[in-house]
Known about the structure:
Helix content: 40-55%
Structural class: mainly alpha
Oligomer: single chain
Strand order of the largest sheet: 1-2
Amino acid sequence: MPPRKRRKKQKIEEYRSPSDPYTGNSPGIECFISWLLVYCLDTSANEARASWRAMVARSPERAADELRCITAVANDPPSDLVPVMKQYGSVYLYRKKKHVRVLYSDGEYVEWLRRTVRDFREIAEEAGLGAAGPELC
Length: 137
């Protein structure tokens, strides 16, 4: 009888779908989840920027609060950042490598988030919102 091949165990994540409640313990992440649902879920980068411009114009105080929140998460990402981004924002980042899609590493997810935060900060500053929180590292 030939030897049996071992199957790799699939990593079971704590998250299942965007409708499931957040079960982690990262402080202050609720506002980040709200941001993901508005600016990332089923939204292109251009649509997200346009929505952000409208938010800054419509409610600068709320935009400043959101910017502080996402800046804090980008500067000090929780250990469960990537599953949260996938669950609530459907953020799945890939790059092509020899005609194969390769999922970004956790560090690349953080860098993507930091670039997005910088883009949003620039949009806010262009609209006259001013510095709305600590600078990114």
